[in-house]
Amino acid sequence: MWGNVMGRLLLLCLMVVLIALPNFCLADDDPYIRQLQDLAGQDDGESQFALALLYEYGGQGVAPDPDKAVALFMQAAEAGIPTACLYLGIKYENGSDVVRNLTMAGNWYCCAAQKGWAMAQFFLAELYKKGKGVKKDNLLALAWYGLAEEQDYPGAKEAMMQLTREMSEADREKVDSLRAGIRNSKVDCSKL
User: Model-level pTM?
Assistant: First the structure.
């Protein structure tokens, strides 16, 4: 299972590099773009994400188109691509090419966080800590910070220490239980 996940992550990273570095290895970009469009049209999430990046930043003969980018990020996220979920969370949190909506940001962060993305776990924890877009909940914030900290995400350990100082021993035990529950089951991100 992890080999397949790592293979997909490497493919995504390669697509990002190929898109981000204009004319790097792609002398004739038209067939590449057509292939991405064909695959995206067949509900291939990685291709939808790669096309979304092209429309987001422009390149390889594709002009930036924020509306197309957002639509493709949505399709990729709905296909289960965690980086697309993370991108949408950031977009909704900042109001970048979408109407700012912290509840939607939380939903999209949750989508990526439950797939193990430490950055999304940290950002979701921040929303819970501040009560932005979600109900303020220091126990859930600490649980998500803990999951991010397990992956050495910068700032997670410090955020955990700060929140932990303010909690009783009973609450710390609840956090351990919450974290185990999050780790072992799917979180319904629509019910944040």
Answer: 0.80
